[in-house]
Write a structure and sequence with these properties.
Elements: H1 14-24, E1 55-59, H2 79-90, E2 98-102, H3 105-109, E3 118-119, E4 133-135, E5 140-141, E6 144-149, H4 160-163, E7 168-171, H5 175-184, E8 191-193, H6 196-204, E9 210-214, H7 215-225, E10 229-234, E11 243-244, E12 247-249, H8 255-267, H9 270-281
Parallel strand pairs: 1-2, 1-3, 7-8, 7-9
Antiparallel strand pairs: 4-12, 5-11, 6-9, 6-10
Helix pairs in contact: 2-8, 2-9
Domain Solute-binding protein family 3/N-terminal: 54-282
Signal peptide: 1-28
Pfam family, one: SBP_bac_3
């Protein structure tokens, strides 16, 4: 599995910023990737899927928690599995009409025909990637999280006030560092590092009480990199967060309809409820307020 950091690009392009701002106010984003020939309709009977009457959805193998559960994308458990089935239902597909395929991350974002209708695999939306593939509007806006070693003085804390006396660090020039200065507002000067790897080393060495990274990176750090680390909690939204979108073939005739389904799920609160369930309650990551 690629590291969470390898999957993401720090620069936030202007078109991506537009997507974020639009989704934050609950409106359909205006700058969508240009779809292929328009669908006559977004009804199941009219959708030009790879297999008529079926919706083929891809993800990686293995598929990790909390995005999926037990490496079984078809069980509907985990944030991205749940999102995929909600999108399918919005498009008129019952669960029995959904078929899953496994596609490696790098293969999915590469130019060329796809063997799926859409792929869901924590793809951050970037202008560079949009040269090769289509994206829907965002189904997830990444929040910042505090990571500490187990037994740290901030482990188990759930109030911003409890973090203000902690020694915290983050990568320079990131939303993570902005979250420390603008949201936590510590009384101890925060430490700045050239990379997240440097910040992690400082945490391991006991030089910091905690580091701030985006939540997907926090999940990866605590599950695959630092076994004695834990996620203290999620911080309130700040800055322009990274956004995840469903990935489709470049010029896919489905892009507009699938993006419209994501917009509807955002507007009716489904995406927010799924995020709360799978990325907070089930994952055991509380909100820090």
């Amino acid at each position: 599995m690629l590291s969470a950091m390898a999957r993401r690009s720090l620069p936030v392009a202007l078109t991506t910023a537009t997507l974020v701002l639009a989704s934050l106010v609950g409106c359909a984003p205006q700058n969508q990737p240009a779809p292929g020939p328009p669908q006559a309709s977004c009804t199941k009977a009219e959708l030009k899927t790879r297999t008529p009457g079926k919706l083929t959805i891809a993800t990686d193998d293995p598929a990790y928690a909390p995005w999926f559960t037990d490496n079984l994308p078809g069980n509907g458990k985990g944030f991205e599995s749940a999102v995929a089935y909600e999108v399918a239902q919005q498009l008129g597909y019952a669960r029995i009409d959904v078929q899953w395929v496994r596609v490696k991350f790098d293969t999915a974002i590469a130019p060329g025909p796809k063997e799926f209708d859409f792929d869901i695999n924590q793809f951050s939306i970037t202008d560079e990637r949009k040269q090769a593939v289509d994206f829907t509007s965002p189904y997830y806006l990444s929040r910042q999280a505090v990571v500490a070693r187990k037994g740290s003085k901030i482990t188990g804390k759930s109030r911003l006030a409890d973090l203000q006396g902690a020694k915290l660090g983050a990568q320079v020039g990131t939303t993570s560092y902005q979250a420390i200065t603008d949201v936590i507002k510590p009384t101890v000067k925060p430490q700045v590092y050239n990379t997240n790897d440097d910040a992690k080393k400082a945490l391991q060495n006991g030089q910091l009480d905690g580091i701030v990274v985006d939540l997907p990176t926090a999940f990866y750090i605590t599950s695959a990199e630092l076994k004695d680390a834990t996620i203290v909690g999620q911080l309130p939204q700040v800055g322009l967060p990274e956004t995840f979108g469903l990935l489709l073939d470049k010029g896919s005739p489905l892009t507009g309809c699938v993006s419209g389904a994501v917009d509807a799920l955002r507007a009716n609160g489904t995406l927010g409820n799924l995020e709360k369930t799978w990325l907070s309650e089930v994952a055991g990551v509380p909100d820090i307020t």
